[in-house]
């Protein structure tokens, strides 16, 4: 049986701290909605804008898989493992917080804002040794098709996390059609429209709309506008 939950862009939680503007698909910080706690192991989907020279000071995390995807500008990362790196549009970053880690994230530029997605996934293993990784994606692999950017396997395409999850990214021309077959039929898929408009399993989604689907093993995707971009996240529905 197919089950859907649709989250329109204008129904998301919102916070504005001046230097930070953040939209929350799921309950986060001061935004709480009992009907939007998570979708399976997908716990946080934040759409953030950070002003030039500003950012998040050093803070702790534990037992969470944290994925950052820059959409515009740069993001500088520092952590208690000694990693210092800058991720840019076209990159994906992953951090397994495990038994505990501290990190900071800043916009290192003096004259350009940064926009990025921060995604939290509940892990299937607790208290693992913290780890950090990042990857520059090949944009040709997402042209009118879905490019795998994350998986549970360290030897597979993209970065990897401690969870039964696969992320795909696609950039489509108008009227492009594709399908997505679930890796695990017991999983669900959360689709998030970055730009443009799509029809997914009969539902029309516009920019920054999201939809969780569980039940079907095949997701049909049609782009309704040029320069449409989609993030598709297959995740375990089993929350420990």
Query: What is the CATH architecture term of the largest domain?
Result: Sandwich
Q: Determine the mean pLDDT.
A: 96
Enumerate the spans where pLDDT stays under 50 for 5 or more consecutive residues: none
Radius of gyration: 17 Å
Number of helices: 0
Strand content: over 45%
Q: Do you know the CATH topology of the largest domain?
A: Jelly Rolls
Instruction: Label the structural class.
Output: mainly beta
Tell me about the biggest sheet? 7 strands, mixed
**Top CATH class of the largest domain:** Mainly Beta
The percent range for helix content is under 10%
Architecture overview:
This protein is an all-beta fold. The protein folds into two domains: 12-136, Jelly Rolls (Sandwich); 139-235, Jelly Rolls. It contains no helices and 22 strands. The protein has strands at residues 3-7, 13-16, 20-24, 42-50, 55-61, 65-72, 74-79, 84-88, 91-96, 101-106, 114-121, 131-136, 147-151, 159-160, 165-172, 177-181, 188-195, 197-200, 203-206, 210-214, 218-223, 228-235.
